[in-house]
Amino acid sequence: EMSSLMISVLLLATPLQAALVPRCPTALHRRTAVRMLVDVRDSPDYGARLTEVAARSARLLKAKEAAGLSFDELASSLGLTNTYTAQLFLGQAKLTAATATQLKAVLPAVNDEDLEAMLKHFPMRGFDERILQEPNVYRTYEAITHYGEAIKRLINEQCGDGIMSAIDFYCDVGTTTGKQGEKRVVITFNGKFLPHIEQRAGDNTAPSPRD
């Protein structure tokens, strides 16, 4: 059974986090999950960082809107995919020095303090579970989960035992025209294949100690 501490923490957690902790298979797993929630919630700069990123994102999007540029147009100027460009504006990707110079050239309204912060800080990649309440986002999520097992089997057949990387990864969003003249959305995932390894003991450079 969960302790009063666990229950108290779950009341402060997001709905998805609160749902996952009770499903942990053992009491040890549940205590570990709760400690992780406490660590995140008690982090002194966690909320401040999220607020800072949200404010910066709002300023970047305002500059984009004032310039009348689409993400496709910005991506073309920066030499990036349109999805990665949007991620930069949302604080979900790391800005490089070369791209910062290009961004300042195409969007002079972006202030130097924001560019410096984007260069200095590492992104807090992730998402607020409430975003799944947005129909566009949820439908994309639903498509991935619905076709997930089929995609997994196809990857295994074509590449072997492994996964598609989401780090060495490109995502591009575009459109095409269907046979009846309707606009259709095209989302391309291009990720490096990462094979699972056979864990040979002789190749393990850091074996665990034995008492």
From TrEMBL:
The keyword Lyase applies. InterPro entries: Cyanase, Cyanate_lyase_C, Cyanate_lyase_C_sf, Lambda_DNA-bd_dom_sf. It comes from the Eukaryota. Pfam families: Cyanate_lyase (PF02560). Gene3D superfamilies: Cyanate lyase, C-terminal domain (3.30.1160.10), lambda repressor-like DNA-binding domains (1.10.260.40). Residues 126-199 form the Cyanate lyase C-terminal domain. Keywords: Lyase, Signal. GO terms for molecular function: cyanate hydratase activity; DNA binding. Residues 1-18 form the signal peptide. Catalyzes the reaction of cyanate with bicarbonate to produce ammonia and carbon dioxide. This is Cyanate lyase C-terminal domain-containing protein.
